[in-house]
Structure formats: C-alpha cells, structure tokens
Write a structure and sequence with these properties.
647 residues, alpha+beta, 5-stranded antiparallel beta sheet, 14 helices
Length: 647
C-alpha cells in the first residue's frame, strides 16, 4: 500500500553522492507500521456507544488487540461481520480508533478464508478496468516469422489440480552418430512476452502483483484470465505462440548443447501426471502416439535423473498435503500428494531449461534475474549440528559445506523414526531463495547459474528472463527495454517481496482451512511430532492432517521449563523432561479457531510415555503451624497500621 506520514518501513539504503557530499537514498521494501494508512482485518462487534474491531490475525497483541470504531464510522457494519478498518490519526493513549473501509460479509462462509488472507497480506485481487480492456483486445498469433514447431509431439503434463498450463515437452533419440544413446528434449513455454509488452497496462499490473497466489479455492492471478486461461494456455489441438529451447543430452543425461527459438506450437495432448504415469507403466490403455511420446519422455528423463544423482542437489523428503474442498468450499479431506516419476521427469526438464536460459544470457552478456539460493549461514548450521547430534549423527565443522554432506544425513535417517525430524531441521537451516541481478549460485540445486524461465504466466521473474532472451537472441519484438535494465535491481527486490507475501498468505489460508476442518473434533487425540520449540511452548505437527498447533508452556506442568536456544529444547527443572524437535507425541485438541487458523493442543504422552506433570510443592510445616504464621503476619500488619495512625 502507499506510504503515509509517520509510517515505519524496512528499507534498503544506498550511498548517493550529491553536491552537498555523501548522502543516502532509501528504497522501501516493506511497511512495518504506521498511523495514517494502517489497516486491520477483523470482526465487528457492536456496542451501545461505539463498536469495536477484533483482529482475525494470529498473534495480534498490544495496541492491535482491538480497535474502537466511533459512532458514525461503522458504515452500517453488522454484529459479527468481517470488516476492514483503517486507523484514524492523532490518538496516542488507549486503544486505537478506526473507521470501517470495507464490509466483507459473513466470516464463517467457507470461501471467505482466502479473501481474509488477501486482505491481510495486501495481495491485489481486483483487476483494473484498463488492464481488462487491454487483455480483451489481444488476438491469437499467426506463424509469421516464427519457427514452425507444430510437427513436434509436444504434450503438457501437469498435476491434476494445476491452474496453469504454460509448459509443454517432448523427447526423442538423437540421430547424430557422434551422440550415440543421446536425446533431444524440447521444452516449449507460453510466449507471454508477445502479449505483455514493457510499459503496457498489463505489464504494470503484472509487475505490481509479482506473481500469482494460489489458494485451495481460488487464484489471485498475475495476468487476467483472457491470457492465463486462454491465449497463453497451451491447450491441445490449438496453435499457441511459444518460446522454446531445444536441448541435447548425452547418454549420461548431461546437457551438451542447446538453442532457443520463438515459435508456434500445437500440443498433441493435455495429460495429468497420473495419466502420464499410467501410460508409462502400461496400466491404462493409450493410443500409440501418446504411449510413444510418454515412453520417450520417461527414457530421456531417466538419463537426466542419472546426471542429477551425480550432481547431488539437496534431496529433501517432506510430504506435501493437498486440501480438497466440496462445491460449497468446505474441506472434505486432507491427503498427502503422491510423488510420481512423472513429476520428477518434468521437474528435471524444467531445471535444465532454466539452466540453459541463464547460460545463454551470460554468454550474450545480457542482464537477467538470477534465482539465488545462498548456502546456509554459520548460525543455522550450528543449530543443525545440535539437532543431528541428538540422534547420534554428526555434521563436521571446518569443511566447505556441500549438498552431498546434507544428503548423507538425510539418507542415514531415511528409514528410521527420525526421518521427518532431520528433514525439517535441514530445511530450517536453508536460507530463503530470492531474485537478484548478481549471481551467487543456487546451493539447493547445486548449480552455478540458475534463472526462472518456465512459468511466465505466474511469475514476473520468468517474463523478465523471456524478454532478456528475446533481446539477446534477436527473436523479434517485446525484448527487455533499456528502462527495465536500469531498474532491474528494484524489480528483483520487489518480486522477492511479493513472493514472500504470497507464501505467507497461502500458508495462513491453509492453517485456517485446517482449523475449520478440525473444529468439530475438539477433545480428540492425535499423533504428531514436535516441529518447533520456543520459550512460550511447543509447536506440534499432526501426522494425520499436517496441521501445526501450539502447546502453551503453562500446560506442560506445574514446574519451570528452561529453554535452551542452542539445542532448541525445553527441560523441566523438577521432572527432568526434555522436549525437542522431532519427538513423537500424543496430543489432545483443546481449541480450534478457524478465523485465526490457531490450534491449541495439550500433550498427553512423549515418545509413548505419559507426560509427567509434577504438582506444586507442598507448603512447609503442618497446617496448625501455617495457621499460626498467618495470624502472626496479620497481627504485625495491624500493629503497623495503628502506629501510623498515632503518628
């Protein structure tokens, strides 16, 4: 949102030389707090004199616990209605005052969950009229000067619940005798740059959003539906403009050459990952073309997977859960997504295409946005060492950390009870990936140079890379403009922020859906594992649903628990109970709050043993003596009071 006077912001400082000497320029990254433009999403509570807004955000405290809505500022809001309030300036003491700026209806309605997250995190969801008009005016593309790729057996393979279809693939053996056993792999990506030109209304709105945000019940898309679901969607049997890369793999699956082309393609089939897997396994009838296409893709994918195994990217194994909704938006089930070979094949081809994009732009000396994932910092590695030592493993100090060292840890616990604990610990040790003009490599993938090229429908970074390739390879109009190059650092910071914003909104939405799903099971017992330890309590991830809940430290027993930040444990001073990340626990669901997504749990057992809850120490001395002591204290107080009166 626009900044107002008095707002606090997180900003990046740049030294600037002016006529007056050295100065600094600040580029805002995120607004932290403010008065004039501060907003809150909450539930309206009517009162006789004034209303109040109770926030729905988890962890609201202090002055943000509630806002007072003076008479005349409620805009007709009804009791229990979900509203957005804006702070009124000028008040320093007591609860903040605010006015209602938006009435959003029944907070209990199932499809309000994602709307709450969008409002709470400032994710744009209304498309300006001028952007819709520009999208509506777009027309399909003819062949023209493009390379004709319509004879290639390109197919799209996506998860069954995918909302975008912007990549197509095909593979066939290389007939070059110098590359016996090798493969030709084509990856064709929707040519979004054909429709979204620098400086256009579509471009300004896409940059503002930064990326699409995905919720179980809807999408807040980066591009209007006319493009994302029609002209840039690679439907089967329909001509679509694309930016494609032809890659040559040797028998060992290593990429030994590539070239980019701007073409016109026609997908032969739109397959789900499950359909592709069934065709590869021979478990379902398929026409000859589909069977041959899928078999070739899987054979080339097996070769590429061999090269990946030798490269040893970080190989985390954490289950991904999918929330399934009914037609009215209510949660019907939560299930773990099955990891198929079809997913791995497409994933590896996309990684190879992204590497090819980065290498080409480096070779052509064209500015680009790298996808950067720096290696873990020393503090996080020390915390990881502490964790792995609790299960008898070691992560040696004094060596240059490689992904293979972390993979050795993961393989050591692959079949044991500590598998999820160590996977979580390794994940927490990682730095957050971001976009940047400078290349600091990609630690997780163990790649020297990496750029996002394969999803321009949903990521602005990929659109920038497409424009850079068009400019570098002289592929026609719509290339990276001088103005974009000049502000590429600013763009990198902005879209890194929007990505984090979307991740937080998506996570909060899942939490709220899970809380709603579990709300009618309060009192039930669940198996889980400790996923986090803080001074104020434990976080437990439930095995059944993947939901995270809080165990307040006050419920652990009537004793003092000492928090050790290095080992991330809580230790009971009298019972000796040690609670740490990864321990299996049985818990009871005490409270589920769908509006905030919060779950409160109570620990019943730890590693199969009942939780120990020492009682308060008995007061010293027999009851008669304690009674005499109390009487003596009372007489002493009365004597002092009498003395003060005389004085």
């Amino acid at each position: 949102p626009a900044l107002g006077a008095g707002d606090q912001v997180l900003a990046k400082l740049h030294a600037v030389h002016t006529d007056d000497g050295l100065s600094y320029e600040a580029r805002p990254i995120k607004r932290l707090a403010g008065e004039g433009t501060r907003r809150m999403l909450g539930i309206y509570r009517a009162g006789p004199e004034a209303g109040r807004v109770v926030p729905v955000a988890k962890g609201a405290k202090g002055a943000d616990k509630e806002w007072i809505v003076p008479r005349g500022a409620a805009e007709g809001s009804q009791e229990g209605e979900l509203v957005e309030a804006e702070a009124l300036p000028g008040r320093r003491l007591g609860l903040p005052h605010g006015r209602i700026v938006a009435r959003l209806g029944d907070p209990g309605a199932p499809r309000q969950v994602s709307l709450i997250a969008m409002h709470e995190h400032g994710i744009p969801y209304e498309v300006p009229a001028e952007v819709l008009e520009e999208a509506a005016a777009a027309e399909p593309v003819a062949l023209g000067d493009r390379e004709d790729l319509r004879d290639l057996a390109l197919v799209t393979i996506d998860p069954e619940d995918a909302r975008d279809h912007d990549d197509a693939v095909c593979a066939f053996p290389d007939d070059d005798t110098a590359n016996r056993g090798g493969w030709i792999v084509w990856v064709a990506i929707a040519d979004v740059a054909r429709y979204v030109r620098p400086g256009s209304e579509l471009d300004r709105e896409a940059r503002r959003r930064g990326n699409s945000t995905y919720f179980p019940d809807r999408v807040a898309p980066m591009l209007p539906e006319r493009l994302s679901a029609d002209l840039c969607s690679l439907m089967d049997g329909v001509d679509r403009p694309c930016l494609a890369v032809r890659m040559v793999l040797n028998e060992a699956g290593e990429k030994i050459g590539h070239r980019f082309a701007r073409g016109l393609m026609r997908s032969r089939a739109s397959l789900s990952s499950e359909q592709a897997q069934a065709a590869a396994n021979g478990d379902a009838p398929a026409d000859a073309l589909r069977r041959e296409t899928v078999e070739a893709l899987f054979a080339a994918g097996a070769a590429a997977h061999g090269a990946r195994e030798r490269r040893q990217p970080l190989d985390l194994d954490l289950p991904e859960r999918r929330i399934e909704l009914d037609d009215e938006g209510r949660v019907t089930s939560v299930r773990v997504r099955e990891r198929l070979d079809a997913h791995r094949v497409i994933e590896e081809f996309m990684i190879l295409a992204n590497v090819a994009a980065a290498e080409t732009l480096e070779e052509k000396r064209t500015p680009l946005l790298y996808r950067v994932h720096e290696e873990p910092n020393p503090e996080k590695l020390d915390a990881l060492r502490e964790t792995v030592e609790t299960v008898g493993l070691t992560l040696a100090k004094g060596q240059v950390l490689k992904t293979r060292h972390l993979n050795d840890l993961l393989r050591a616990v692959e079949a044991g009870e500590h598998r999820e604990m160590i996977n979580l610990a390794v994940l927490r040790a990682q730095t957050q990936a971001y976009y940047g003009r400078e290349n600091f490599s990609h630690f997780g993938l163990n790649l020297r140079a990496y750029a996002h090229f394969t999803s321009p429908i949903r990521r602005y970074a990929d659109l920038i890379v497409h424009r850079a390739l068009i400019r570098a390879c002289k592929l026609g109009a719509g290339g990276l403009s001088p103005e974009e190059i000049e502000r590429i650092d600013e763009t990198a910071e902005h879209i890194s922020m929007t990505e984090r914003r979307s991740m937080e909104a998506e996570r909060d939405t899942v939490d709220r859906y899970l809380a709603a799903f579990l709300a009618d099971r309060v009192g039930a017992e669940f198996e889980g594992r400790i996923s986090g330890v803080q001074r104020f309590g434990l976080f437990v991830k439930l095995d059944e649903s993947g939901a995270d809940g809080l165990v307040p430290i006050s419920t652990l027993g009537r004793e003092y628990f000492r928090y050790d930040e290095d080992s991330r444990t809580l230790t009971g001073e009298r019972s000796g109970t040690v609670l740490g990340i990864g321990q299996p626990v049985t818990v009871r669901l005490v409270e589920a709050e769908p509006l905030s997504g919060g779950l409160i749990l109570e620990v019943l057992s730890v590693e199969g043993a009942p939780a120990r809850r020492p009682q308060r120490r008995p007061r010293s001395g027999p009851p008669e003596r304690r009674k005499l002591t109390r009487e003596r204290i009372a007489r002493s107080k009365a004597k002092r009071k009498a003395g003060r009166r005389k004085a």
